[in-house]
Amino acid sequence: MFHSIVSNLDSFVSWLQTMLYVDVVQPFLFKVGMMDYDEDTYDALYWVIVGVLEVLTMYAILRPLEALRPAEEWKDRKGVRVDVLYTWIVKLGILNLFFFFTFQPLFDSLQSWLRLQGIPNLEIDNLWPGVTTQPIVTFLIYLFVLDFAGYWYHRLEHRIGIWWELHAVHHSQQKMSLWSDDRNHLLDDILQAGFFAAIALVIGVEPAQFVVLVAITNLMQSVQHANIRLHFGWLGERIIVSPAFHRRHHAIGYGHEGTTYGCNFGVLFSFWDILFRSASFNRTVEPTGIRDQLGAPGIKPVHYGDGFFEQHWLAFRRIGARLMSRRAGASGNGSAAV
Ligand SMILES: [Zn+2]
Ligand SMILES: [Zn+2]
């Protein structure tokens, strides 16, 4: 069944790809004299369509639910629009560019290099021939391995100061909605894509499967960020990350600081948080954001930026400030020792 869903989707996207290509893209390329890029553009169009379909599906399902059962009521939707921009940039541009023009060629050449050196893939799918070689079982194993890595990647984003400054772009949204999943510093996006691509390469995931794995994770992450009062029940909450569970991760004073280390870092599965003692199943709706955005008596609130460029620039400034203060601290200690 799983296989037939994927292949039906694939033929639908391929049909759209050919139609759009013949009617729109090719005449345009011809007009502007760029027919040299003919084949690449045709292939890249596939992922552009996947991206558009993903965004439209997510909007069609989640937006009515946000209107029906909002977790938070807002006076206006100011500040949400920048997340829409992030979504289109990431879903159409960055991921596409990355997968298609960088990841796949790099993947192919690295794989042949590994073969030449006689280094085999881990071939997790061959652990138990007959069982783990079943496509659905192989797929689930890949999902677990990548999600386990995702848990630790996310936890370290909160633990390592410089990295946190990049991730803070994601957490500075005080109106979390179905668009907030892609609100990430682009540098962090690239780091993350490289990290997961490397793991996929080591465990032997095919590029085509990798794209499906990423698409599923992305869709689930859009659900988690939606402004919907929704949990998956006692058992469901302990298996899959729900909007209630992830909202707790964004809650001021809980997700980042929590009981000194933060909580609910799971990306797709919440049981990693149970296993590594970082789970909070408290469903109380708390304001989302970063504590220092609120300010304190005598301390000005920290501004993380309103627009896309400002948010990126301010992250670099915060990283610069951290490095400077670290250096000042180091030289201060040095002189004290002398
Ligand atoms: Zn986080
Ligand atoms: Zn989030």
User: Could you tell me which ligands this complex binds, including any ions or cofactors?
Assistant: zinc ion
Assembly state of the chains shown: single chain
- In percent, how helical is the residue content? 55-70%
Unreliable residue runs: 334-338
- The fraction of residues assigned to DSSP E strands is under 5%
Structural class: mainly alpha
- The whole-angstrom Rg is 22 Å
Note the total helix count.
11
Number of spatially distinct domains: 2
Q: Biggest sheet, in brief? A: none
Q: From N to C, what is the helix and strand string?
A: HHHHHHHHHHH
Distance between the termini: 71 Å
Mean pLDDT: 85
Shape by Cα distribution: globular
User: How many strands appear in the DSSP assignment?
Assistant: 0
Commentary on this structure:
With 338 residues, this protein is mostly helical. It has two domains: 8-68; 86-326, no CATH class. It is 64% helix and 0% strand. Helix 1 crosses helix 2. It is globular. Residues 334-338 have low confidence and may be disordered.
Features:
single chain, 338 residues
Describe, in short, the structure shown.
The chain has 338 residues and is an all-alpha fold. The protein has eleven helices and no strands.
